[in-house]
Design goal:
Elements: H1 6-15, H2 19-32, E1 41-46, H3 50-65, E2 71-78, H4 83-95, E3 100-104, H5 107-111, H6 118-136, E4 141-143, H7 148-162, E5 171-173, E6 181-183, H8 191-200, H9 227-239, H10 245-252, E7 263-266, E8 269-272
Parallel strand pairs: 1-2, 1-4, 2-3, 4-6
Antiparallel strand pairs: 5-6, 7-8
Helix pairs in contact: 7-9, 7-10
């Protein structure tokens, strides 16, 4: 038998060993949220971390098995990585047979000069650069590697630290780039499954490459000191007693009952349970 390449082994493991925890949830998210349509041209945005690299392999495999045609561009934005991190991204892409194109930006340089919410500024700038470059390539969508655990953590962060209930949506229409849309194809995949896939295939990716983060190692660091890390630690503790904690929070985002909601906003208009309270007699 012909020996498989590392890329082929990694992809094969998605369909076999991790079919239940990665491939099926991936397909479920694509279908449930109607993320990909015929003749879409999608820019798969790769940061070099485990999530975006897995996303690239999933999208490659989906394209080969899809019943309708769509195009992919594998796009790497270099926000100012040091040479070690940049070469790690390039080497991993080559090993996993992902045909990336790289373009540069000065995002890290800009955020280092601000003392106000650098993470928020970085995320906004990244999104803008990705949309703009994808649009130049003729794409109508950008795909990001956010997963179920990101969705749960972001929701809880907003509630615990921001006194707000907001959900990271599976897809969004761009407000600033006409005809462009953001999709999150890994929306239904738990982070634990991604870690397991990475370990099983003995893969090593860059993690926290931000020059403002002092607590991150070069490769596969978990990061430290952030509100997200606090929420991750909290969920980790809760999962010791109930392994379905994240799944339960995720399911709750799909079953919001407005009849038992004190207040909510829709199209920037505030609504209260008192609006119709006296009508229910």
């Amino acid at each position: 038998m012909r020996e498989l390449t590392l890329s082929q082994k990694a992809e094969q493991s998605i369909h076999k060993k991790y079919r239940k925890t990665i491939w099926r949830p991936f397909i479920e998210g694509i279908k449930r949220y109607q993320l990909i349509q015929e003749n879409d041209i999608i820019a798969v945005c790769i940061s070099g971390g485990k999530d975006s690299m897995l996303l690239a392999k999933l999208m490659q495999s989906l394209q080969r098995h899809s019943r309708f045609p769509f195009q992919l561009h594998f796009m790497v934005m270099n926000p100012g990585y040091n040479e070690i991190n940049l070469q790690k991204v390039i080497a991993n892409a080559e090993m996993l047979e992902i045909p990336i194109t790289i373009f540069d930006s000065n995002i890290f340089q800009v955020v280092q000069q601000t003392d106000r919410t650098p993470c928020y500024l970085c995320a906004r700038m990244r999104r803008g650069y990705l949309y703009a470059h994808a649009q130049k390539l003729g794409c109508n969508k950008i795909a990001l590697g956010h997963h179920l655990s990101d969705v749960v953590e972001t929701t809880l962060m907003g509630m615990l630290f921001g006194a707000q209930y907001q959900v990271m949506m599976p897809k969004l229409k761009s407000q600033n780039f006409h005809g462009m849309e953001l999709i999150r194809p890994m929306y239904c995949i738990e982070e634990d499954a991604i870690h397991a896939w990475k370990r099983y295939n003995a893969l090593s990716f860059i993690a926290c490459a931000c020059p403002l983060s002092e607590n991150c190692n070069i490769f596969d660091a978990s990061g430290g000191g952030s509100k997200r890390q606090e929420v991750k630690s909290l969920l980790h503790q809760l999962k010791r007693d109930n392994k379905d904690i994240e799944k339960n929070v995720f399911k709750s985002l799909h079953t919001v009952n407005l009849d038992t909601t004190i207040a909510y906003k829709q199209n920037d208009k505030a609504h209260s349970f008192l609006d119709n309270y006296d009508l229910n007699k």
